[in-house]
Specification:
By secondary structure, the chain is an all-alpha fold. The protein is built from 3 helices and no strands. Helix 2 runs antiparallel to helix 3.
């Protein structure tokens, strides 16, 4: 009797593990999670570029003119990424 209950519980667990990803909306959630992860990575990469640019400017490796242009471009890129992140569904 205990063996049969164990097999039944194990079967239900396997069935749940197989069917949960197939439920409606599961693929959309996975795509949204992937998109959020991509945007988070892009945000961090852009912040790193901004920090590196500012350090190079302070060290004299980048002229004031080049710095202003690159800083404006990277700032606009960061704002665009943040707006796309804000447009995603909030995390629950």
């Amino acid at each position: 009797m205990v063996y049969e209950i164990g097999v039944l519980v194990l079967g239900l667990l396997v069935l749940t593990a197989v069917l949960v990803p197939l439920r409606p909306g599961a693929r959309a959630e996975a795509l949204e999670d992937e998109r959020r992860a991509d945007l988070d990575a892009a945000r961090e990469a852009t912040y790193t570029e901004i920090r590196d640019l500012r350090l190079d400017h302070r060290m004299g490796k980048v002229s004031d003119e080049d710095f202003a242009a690159a800083d404006a471009e990277l700032g606009a890129k960061a704002v665009g990424i943040l707006r796309r992140l804000d447009a995603l569904e909030p995390l629950v």
